[in-house]
Write a structure and sequence with these properties.
With 223 residues, the protein is an alpha/beta fold. Helix content is 41%, strand content 24%. The chain has eight helices and twelve strands. Strands 2-1-3-4-5 form a five-stranded parallel β-sheet, sandwiched between helices. Helix 2 runs parallel beside helix 3. The longest helix is centred in the middle third of the chain and has 15 residues. The radius of gyration is 18 Å and the shape is globular.
């Protein structure tokens, strides 16, 4: 198959087990035991999938994910023993594609990996996403709402796509700031509100609504 995977895991036995399984499926496997090494390897090589533990030496998985997402859309699965909902939502807000809780089934993990590969390599059918009367061609970034093509600013497109990919999940303003503006952003959370307001105007009566969740943040609801 020739696909390259980076496993970032400080539990040597678990890393070896995952490595052996993917290796048996003809993947090329690289293992990193801490966050710094993971970023060094990522800078030097191209990977089709990254399996990323959260609790890591040097830099935790959230930090590693954020830095990778600044430059790449490579699929990232968080693999962790932490089961707190806040951690899971933070992972999705940072751009993770899936969140796998230990202990897990290696065949199920592999099946999830192949599903993502089929999408990202264009061999599956999931190159368009539809919610209500909104359709997005992920390959061309073309957005159609109520049958009409719409032009969105790049950041508004990314925010809209993020909500379409994560319906019925509530994300705080802080999580959205981190995801789209980064930890070093100097502005206020009002910038999130302003962009949500613009997106709401664009999507109109499409059957999708970005709902304000009082005291929490925003959630996409689909009729």
């Amino acid at each position: 198959m020739g696909l390259d995977i980076l496993i970032v895991e400080d539990d040597a036995l678990l890393a070896e087990a995952v490595s052996d399984y993917f290796g048996s499926k003809e993947w090329n496997v690289t293992i990193a035991s801490d966050g710094d090494v993971a970023l060094e390897l990522f800078a030097e090589h191209s990977y089709q999938l990254i399996l990323l533990d959260i609790m890591l030496p040097k830099q935790n998985g959230f930090s590693v994910c954020r830095k990778i997402r600044e430059v790449s859309d490579v699929p990232i699965f968080f693999i962790t023993a932490r089961v707190m909902e806040e951690d899971e939502l933070n992972g999705y807000a940072l751009g993770a594609d899936d969140y796998i809780t230990k202990p897990f089934s290696l065949p199920v993990l592999y099946a999830k990996a192949m599903a993502v590969m089929n999408r990202t390599r264009g061999t599956g059918t999931f190159r368009r996403i539809r919610r209500g009367a909104i359709e997005v061609d992920i390959r061309t970034h073309e957005v159609t709402i109520l049958g009409k093509k719409c032009r969105l600013a790049p950041l508004e497109y990314k925010i809209l796509l993020f909500f379409l990919e994560n319906p019925n999940r509530t994300f705080t303003r802080e999580q959205l700031l981190i995801r789209f503006w980064g930890y070093d952003f100097d502005g206020t959370e009002r910038v999130v509100d302003n962009h949500i307001k613009k997106i709401r105007k664009i999507i109109g009566n499409s059957g999708c609504r970005i709902q304000t969740v009082r005291g929490s943040g925003y959630r996409l609801e689909v009729k």
